[in-house]
Amino acid sequence: MGLFSKAAKVTPKITVDGIEIAFDPDHKWWEFTYRDHEFITFQSHLHMPSRGELDSILSDVAALKPEMTERLAKGWKEWGDVKMYDGESYNINLESFGSEGSFEVSWSGGASWGDMGIDFRIKDHKIVNESWGD
């Protein structure tokens, strides 16, 4: 190491039941991947769901994905030249999971979407709220 060089920052990580959870200092969120799905929370306290709860969340997402994509396609009709299936992705936000038993599936990233994002709040195996914004 040179006189003026800094040591690389270490990303804080913990491992719970084989799942590596990292704190992303750029986005200021906790993140982990489970069964190829990205989970996040912006809270300083992460309520880590059990594997059974994670499996239930992913089951809900799979069951509700057709409804979410239908709602997305319907909403995009109003915007004109926006397309589905042009690179969009989603993550699962767990901020309210510990306190309310709900979670959000946050869609973004489509090539024609600009900076638009859509959040679907899910509770008790159904979509209870939909929020569009940039």
Features:
8 strands, 134 residues, globular
Rg from alpha-carbon coordinates: 17 Å
Output the structural class.
alpha+beta
Average of pLDDT: 86
Order of helices and strands: EEEEHEHEEE
Please bin the fraction of helical residues: 10-25%
In total, the number of domains comes to 1
How many strands in all?
8
* Shape by Cα distribution: globular
Kindly describe this structure:
With 134 residues, the protein is α+β, with helices and mostly antiparallel strands. It has one domain (13-133). It is 23% helix and 36% strand. The protein has 2 helices and 8 strands; from the N terminus they run E-E-E-E-H-E-H-E-E-E. It has an 8-stranded mixed sheet. A hairpin with a 2-residue loop joins strand 7 and strand 8. The chain starts with 12 loop residues before the first strand and ends with a strand.
Topology, please?
Elements: E1 13-16, E2 19-24, E3 29-34, E4 37-41, H1 51-77, E5 89-93, H2 97-100, E6 102-108, E7 117-123, E8 126-133
Parallel strand pairs: 4-5
Antiparallel strand pairs: 1-2, 2-3, 3-4, 5-6, 6-7, 7-8
